[in-house]
């Protein structure tokens, strides 16, 4: 099984280090995207940033990600199984907000404590997650017309 | 005559990502309208897009880390906002201000609202059970206020639900 661990633009060394060390002997093939992280994995391949992150998404069976909304929505859109781990090294309450929402509604598995990772991966492998239906933004025209004064109120 | 423009205000990270998506949608929704935009953004976050004819970079309005140093920088910050406002006002006719956050949108929205620009705010896509600081303030200032997640209607009863960028 291929699992991508992605942290977006902000490093999340404790997560990378935990997985790299804890799952060293596991049969899971991890790949890490570590941003400008100081910890470099020794047991699995890694990269810092990549324009081809979507290729990695597609090739993975599961993705472990930080709680960045852009990443989460993209992954849900391509129906990838995701485990969300909010970045506790840089706590913004909106990261917790989206992480809790996705976890509570069953669109993703959300964990805040790394020690639940193994369990979460197992749960993700066996069970199905609820598919997230995206209501696509439909106010573009209204915004443009209102902006240009072609539409009052 | 000064060129008519839409002023886009956005921060780095997620705010920028949402503005990029909105721009893409405006660009692709070929309405036969010649829409020109200018941008105000945080340092090094400017989006390169054919519709944006000029970008102005500003220090963040509200630093996440409170410190004495940040407090001392406040007057300079306000000076920057006001000088940027006049620079834009001299050169452009700002029809509307559109922002995806953060708080940087607040001072400029107050200033441009007095000049009769329309104010449009899109609350961030990462909120479900909490409000952003910018959202709380902009809800009072905006002529049109959009929410991307339905659950936010409890905080913003008069908001328009737009779906996700």
Kindly, what is the distance between the CA atoms of the first and last residues of chain B, rounded to a whole number of angstroms? 34 Å
Spell out the helices and strands of chain A N to C. Answer: EHEEHEHEHEHH
Would you count the extended β strands of chain B for me?
7
Strand residue content of chain A: 5-15%
**Tally of helical segments of chain A:** 6
Mean pLDDT of chain A: 92
Q: Sheet with the most strands of chain A?
A: 6 strands, parallel
Strand ordering within the main sheet of chain A: 3-2-1-4-5-6
How large is the share of residues in beta strands of chain B?
15-25%
Number of strands of chain A: 6
Estimate the helix proportion of chain B, in percent: 25-40%
Helix-strand pattern of chain B, N to C?
Answer: EHEEHHEHEHEE
Give a nutshell description of this structure.
The complex is a heterodimer of chains A (153) and B (165). With 153 residues, chain A is α/β, with parallel strands linked by helices.
Question: How do the helices and strands line up, and which of them pair or pack?
Answer:
The complex is a heterodimer of chains A (153) and B (165).
Chain A: E1 2-6, H1 13-22, E2 29-33, E3 46-47, H2 53-59, E4 62-65, H3 69-77, E5 81-84, H4 93-104, E6 109-110, H5 117-126, H6 140-147
Parallel strand pairs in A: 1-2, 1-4, 2-3, 4-5, 5-6
Chain B: E1 4-10, H1 14-28, E2 37-42, E3 52-58, H2 68-72, H3 74-91, E4 93-99, H4 105-113, E5 118-122, H5 133-141, E6 144-147, E7 160-161
Parallel strand pairs in B: 1-2, 1-4, 2-3, 4-5, 5-6, 6-7
Helix pairs in contact in B: 4-5
How would you portray this structure in words?
The complex is a heterodimer of chains A (153) and B (165). With 153 residues, chain A is of the alpha/beta class. In chain A, 37% of the residues lie in helices and 14% in strands. Chain A has 6 helices and 6 strands; from the N terminus they run βαββαβαβαβαα. Chain A has a 6-stranded parallel sheet, sandwiched between helices. Chain A is globular. The model of chain A has no long low-confidence stretch (mean pLDDT 92). Chain B is an alpha/beta fold and 165 residues long. Chain B is 34% helix and 23% strand. Chain B has helices at 14-28, 68-72, 74-91, 105-113, 133-141; strands at 4-10, 37-42, 52-58, 93-99, 118-122, 144-147, 160-161. The longest helix of chain B is centred in the middle third of the chain and has 18 residues, at 74-91. The radius of gyration of chain B is 15 Å and the shape is globular. Classes of the chains: A alpha/beta (153), B alpha/beta (165). Chain A binds chain B through residues 9, 67-70, 73, 92-95, 97-98, 100-101, 134-144, 146-149, 153, and chain B through 4, 6, 13-14, 17, 21-22, 25-26, 29, 31, 33, 35, 64, 95-96, 98, 118, 120, 124-130, 132, 143-144, 146, 148-149, 151, 160, 162-165.
């Amino acid at each position: 099984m291929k699992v991508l661990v992605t942290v977006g633009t902000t490093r999340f060394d404790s997560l990378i280090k935990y997985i790299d060390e804890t799952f060293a002997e596991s049969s899971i093939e991890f790949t890490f995207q570590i941003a400008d992280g100081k910890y470099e994995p020794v047991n699995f391949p890694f990269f810092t940033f990549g324009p081809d992150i979507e290729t990695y998404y597609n090739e993975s069976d599961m993705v472990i990600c930080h709680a960045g909304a852009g990443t989460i929505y993209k992954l849900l859109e391509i129906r990838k199984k995701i485990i969300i781990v909010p970045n506790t090294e840089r706590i913004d309450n909106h990261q917790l907000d989206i992480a809790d929402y996705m976890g509570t509604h069953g669109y993703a598995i959300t964990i805040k404590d790394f020690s639940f990772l193994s369990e979460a991966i197992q749960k993700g492998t066996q069970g199905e997650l609820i598919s997230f239906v995206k209501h696509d933004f439909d106010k573009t025209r209204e915004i443009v017309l209102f902006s240009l004064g072609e539409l009052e109120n | 005559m000064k060129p008519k423009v839409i002023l886009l205000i956005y921060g780095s990270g997620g705010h920028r990502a949402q503005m990029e998506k909105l721009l893409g949608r405006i660009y692709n929704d070929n309405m036969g309208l010649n829409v020109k935009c200018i941008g105000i953004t945080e340092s090094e976050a400017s989006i390169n897009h054919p519709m944006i004819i000029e970008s102005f970079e500003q220090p963040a309005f509200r630093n996440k880390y409170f410190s004495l140093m940040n407090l001392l920088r406040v007057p300079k910050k306000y000076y920057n906002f006001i000088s940027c406002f006049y620079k834009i006002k001299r050169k452009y006719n700002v029809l509307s201000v559109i922002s995806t956050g953060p708080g940087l949108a607040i001072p400029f929205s107050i200033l441009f609202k007095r000049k009769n620009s329309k104010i449009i705010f899109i609350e961030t896509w990462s909120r479900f059970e909490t409000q952003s600081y910018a959202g709380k303030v902009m809800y009072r200032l905006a002529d049109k206020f959009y929410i991307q997640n339905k659950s936010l209607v409890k905080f913003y009863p008069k908001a328009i639900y737009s779906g996700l960028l």
